[in-house]
Amino acid sequence: MKNKSKEEKRRIRRKTLLVILGIIAIYCLSNLIITLIFAGRIPHRFASAEEGRELMLSNTEYYDKFTQNDIDFRVRKSGATMEELLDASSQSVQEYSFFEKWYLNSRIARMALKLAWNGYNLPETDEIVFVKADMEMESGANGYTHGTEIYLSGGFVTAYSVMGIIPGASEYMDEVLFHELFHCLTRCNPEWRAQMYSLINFTVADTEYELPPCVVEKYISNPDIEHHDSYATFVIDGQEIDCYTAWITTKSYDEAQAGFMQNDATVLVPTDGTDMYYTREQASNFDEVFGTNTGYVTDPEECMADNFAYAMLYGTKGKSGKGYPNPEIIQGIIDYLK
Asked: Is residue 327 part of a domain?
């Protein structure tokens, strides 16, 4: 009787193992097929470390606008030089492994499949180039963009490529990829950018606003924000004032001794050129303008990139299935793409 019982347990364990292996095999095969069919529908490729360094350093227009505040916080050193920053930035670029490329291709394929399944037609974009880098220069961000180059954190990609086999583990990676894709789309399609911004009450103007001195000394550049040319009407002290947004640090690097994301603030700058700014708390309608689907409200570009990612991944039901505080923003994105 005891021997029979042991044999029965072994048989059950073998069956269970075979079922698990079968499920894994089916998952891997379906993932392979989906990746091969759909990955190319979002045009992209992966840069080598050498090309990635060249691409990063070629973004001279971005670096030329850096303030000393920018440089200090990125190099983590008071009085740092642009040469130190560029050298550190260049050294931060890494090589994608075959496994990481395959993982990202599989996620991009899932994105394309979801778009096709829902009948969404994205605006056209130039080829997207993925670059792998550590994010020391960008205060530990998971990703950012220059033009249609998407820079992803090396540690972030490595960790998620290892966890990728776990169902549902890649959801946040997909959010990041859709968020960064939005930046690429807005740069290639100015009219679409204006349409998206209008969903959160921003108007794209015909002119670029010049940051006043009081903002420049505290300003932090965001590679995802190429322009300060959109404004909204904010109610400040009972008055309606047209303002654009800027991202600043609340302390100098000497005072902060930390990354800029631990000491940042969104400020509202009047479009009339006055040398002053308002805090978001001073605008009684700040949340009405941006909505509250996301807390990433440093700029309409970042706010709408988050909303775009939510719309593409979760539709009108939202991540929790309970919708959004401002469903009209999500619906507006979906209506446009359909």
From this structure: no
Fill in the amino acid letter for 236. I
Is residue 64 a part of any domain in this protein? yes
Question: What is the spatial distance between Cα 248 and Cα 246, in angstroms, rounded to a whole number?
Answer: 7
Counted domains in the chain: 2
Cβ atoms within 10 Å of 300's Cβ, excluding its own: 27
- 189: domain range? 38-194
* Other Cβ atoms within 10 Å of 39 Cβ, number: 20
CA-based nearest residue to 142, from 88, 182, 180, 187: 180
- Same domain, yes or no, for 68 and 183? yes
Specify the pLDDT at position 15: 75
| CA 267 – CA 283 distance, rounded (Å) | 10
pLDDT at 27: 60
In this structure, is residue 335 part of a structural domain? no
The structure tokens listed for 215 are 């903002």
Give the predicted TM-score (pTM) of the model. Answer: 0.91
DSSP code of 283? B
Residues 83 and 229 grouped into a single domain: no
pLDDT digit string, tens, across residues 233-260: 999 999 999 999 999 999 999 999 988 8
Alpha carbon distance 114, 110 (integer Å)? 6
Same domain (yes/no): 268, 300 = yes
